[in-house]
Structure formats: structure tokens, C-alpha cells
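Hi, here's the filled form for the chain we discussed.

Project: internal
Contact: R.S.
Residues: 146
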Amino acid sequence: MAKSGWKGLFGIDIIYDEKAGKTYLLEINARQPASAVFESKLQKKSVSKSDSNGVSVFEAHVLALLGEPVIGELTSVPSGGQIVKRVTEKDFKTDIVSLRKRGLDVIEYENDIHNRELFRIQSGEGIMKGHGKLNDLGNFIASCIR
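And the returned structure, exactly as it came back:
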């Protein structure tokens, strides 16, 4: 993308075919992905723990938009998870109080338009223990959305 003159973040959608053992590119989203701010937040927490000079995704984005070089490596994120609940035809009851008591960030939006974001759950811990298998935190979150 940079070789084509693109500046800043972009997202890609991919799919992995387990049988073929291949990854396929579905599309390139030429915009800042919604997860960039959350990932940067996790990166900043990681940097403060390790005292490294790593760069967050958002910092790299701003530097690229300004035409400045990105000096340093992107900080890795050891763990984290984000779940987005959208407005659907089926109504779900969500125990947001319990989610927050567990230390999860829950960002709510006032939407009633189909497929618009209703809320977002963010965690510094992952929610999966394997492909298609929730860990304890993932199961807890699932139990709060009924």
C-alpha cells in the first residue's frame, strides 16, 4: 500500500482454509480499522510494563499521515480481546453490570438501526483457548449475553 502512495492505516479481511492450509485475501479496507485505538491502548499498557520504546499502531498511523518516518518497532500485544454487538432482529439481554464488575470495558451506543453497533466489550485478556473454543473469560462473557 505504501508503494502505491497510501499513507496511514488500512485493514485487511482474510480467511484461512484449514483443509488447503492457505490464507486468502478477501478485501483491503483503505481506512483506519475500528480496532486501532483499542490495539494502541493495549500496546501502551504493554510498553509501560516493559519500558520499551515501542510504537503504537495509532502513533505509526499519525506519523505516516504527516509523512514522518516511523522509528522503532511496533509494540506487540501479548493478549486482548474485543467483541462488538450490533443491532439485530433478535433481541439479546446483556448483563453489562456483571461485565464491568469483572473489569471489562463496555462502551455503549444509542442505536436502533439494524447492523449498527450497540456496544463493545474490551478486555486486556484473550477470550479464546483454541479455534472455536472459549476460555473461562469468554464463557463468562457469553453467559452475560442472553
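Let me know if anything looks off before we file it.
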